[in-house]
């Protein structure tokens, strides 16, 4: 690794599981800038839109800096004493299973390790589960069924070396962007074929060689058909199957029975037979094949079966553990993999040990000298919140996750949080979940704390601090140890920093491990201070005295008792909840390019909000037409669990009968736009992972009678509106409002949001019929402080100019003041349209103009406008725009 200037710190991106290396620099004025770390083997210097904007997320605005009890600021001593006392008393009175922790794949390995140790070894319950239950649990369960241990065999290099990459239920272009770009680069170099299996035509699907828009939930059938085809095509690796696996005959017979021909599969999956054949023939003919899978596979009531249906095809062809081949479950969160290493799920033990083996339980007990070792699995996420709601779990500690938004049936989760006797939340900012906290603990954020994370390819990297810890915030590991000590477990929690925890974690991985657990990082058990500081990114395992194995499962030996991998005979089951006449649309949910989960960080960055500033429901033209829905209309979406509202985008990327709502919007950014309120808690029977991708809904048009927009420097949480959303802009926030009330009532409602401060100079205008209203307030210096426009739908004046004035914060000239209430700049100001490239703020109108001037390719656009030349996240969208213009020109 090259030496860095003293002002730059090497760390790792806190977002997705690609795990990119980041170099952070703090300027004298405190501003943080970042660039990609060219030495990091995950990204070789590249960063996606979210990673490039990391410097803009470190401001202290909105940060929690002081502990609170019942909304009152307090000292750490008082807060920690209370948490320890309430947990201890509850355990004493009601037993260890009356308390629970709900934690996160965004914690560092060291934080995760001590939380798990406290609950499973010292409190004596396994009621610790993590948001990875919503994320990776089906992959974990599928790996364990097939391999005997939760092993991801491959590395990112396999994507460089593959001839065929099948992306299943993965919007890689948006969710693992740097990995995706690596794949596109490999395609340039070697002609890799890319197949996408996804009901939606995603940005990823736009660029692939073959897109199979399967009906939701039918992946098992598709892969069973593939297994049957591989047999017929004669490409089964008999040697491998005979010497390294068990259960092939049964898996094949079940698969062949239900997926008898490509035609039968096509009919069952809602696909064209020719496409199914094409996939099968490509797969059969290409030995270097990697199947990447993500939430379209995991987040399903049959997710574990989906995982095994995929793995079956790789085992049958012996395509596992070899360069350019293998099943590849890509992790979502930055430390989803690290959480699995420390056993953060309720049904796991630390260091890849398990409750179903008593010798494992005793081993961990001995290693920790645990006074109260948990002996059986605890409550999984959905059940944990049920227990919190019905009084079985009386004290709950939530760390680094926002379940009030991200859990399915989230209205019920919110009720549970409200009724639970004692709720502790550790977070870096206020969220929908912190509203229910009896005790609120301010955690140190990315850039302020250090430790390790493990990415999708089992590569451990350091996060390193480069900013001082603000206010009274504390690192999560320390908060957990502080509480453990106050609960009387001091001796086992006296670490003086993450390094000591890391060493213990490494020691446990090697403890009585005679090669039977592949997760072994014993070589790092005595890692010196300087070495941990320096810590180049590296794969596990790192067993003591053995060379580091980059790729796993290479020799046909598996960590099962008989050393063989297991085929699992899986059948295509019906979806958890089928659509019916009352709720005829299957609602899917997932991610957008520039947002991270519940937007607590990315939602504050103007350029990350510019591409999609408000939640929209994507719906197929036919379904929209039937409901009289057009672009921009407000839809009311209801499921058996709750309802949401969102503006409509009519899109033929959606398969008829399906719709898509992003998962990101919380009550902080919109009224009732959460996908979690609609989602079903029905879960996979093996993994406990809920079906987040498919819930039957009814969609109706809301008759909007007025719309409004408030541009303001202030951060508000409007109440009483049918619908509002907000997004940040330079200098403040833009609130979009609308309602079903009469326009004059809409005006009354909206005016309540205005800042009535007498210091401001205020001007307003209402038309004679009382249908439109405009107001503006200037601060004492004469700069625009806020503006409100209300009008019937479709009649709002332009707002680009007003928004730019908010950012400029400069006193207005007389002509500008006169023009304020019209919303139109006195000098012409062309609108750039919806922002496509968030790195260089390039909008769709500018791209259209460039095309008119002759730009014909991505490269031309890059040369003329710079769009797409930095992080590359917008390249597929630009390509789509170019295609659309080309089509238009041809018509
Ligand atoms: N921009 C961004 N990137 C992220 C995140 C983020 O919040 N924002 N979060 C990170 C995290 S934690 C995760 S878990 C990953 C998730 O990464 P992905 O899994 O790639 O993302 P999702 O959008 O959740 O879902 C993937 C796709 O599954 C499809 N799908 C739905 N149902 C089915 C089905 O039945 N079969 C198949 N084959 N596909 C189906 C959806 O249409 C969707 O396009 O992203 C990580 N990266
Ligand atoms: N409908 C639907 N729901 C979903 C999904 C879906 O696809 N559809 N996907 C699911 C998946 S895969 C996931 S991973 C989850 C994600 O869901 P969540 O985990 O709830 O989402 P985040 O917004 O990432 O929450 C992380 C929280 O940790 C806080 N935080 C940040 N840094 C720190 C820190 O250092 N310490 C502490 N203590 N807190 C910190 C953030 O402010 C934030 O509140 O959502 C799940 N829910
Ligand atoms: S791909 Fe983007 S979000 Fe994921 S780790 Fe890399 S920079 Fe961060
Ligand atoms: Mo996730």
From TrEMBL:
Pfam families: Fer2_BFD, Molybdop_Fe4S4, Molybdopterin, Molydop_binding. SUPFAM superfamilies: ADC-like (SSF50692), Formate dehydrogenase/DMSO reductase, domains 1-3 (SSF53706). Belongs to the prokaryotic molybdopterin-containing oxidoreductase family. NasA/NapA/NarB subfamily. Residues 6-62 form the 4Fe-4S Mo/W bis-MGD-type domain. Its cofactor is Mo-bis(molybdopterin guanine dinucleotide); [4Fe-4S] cluster. This is Molybdopterin-dependent oxidoreductase. Keywords: 4Fe-4S, Iron, Iron-sulfur, Metal-binding, Molybdenum, Nitrate assimilation, Oxidoreductase.
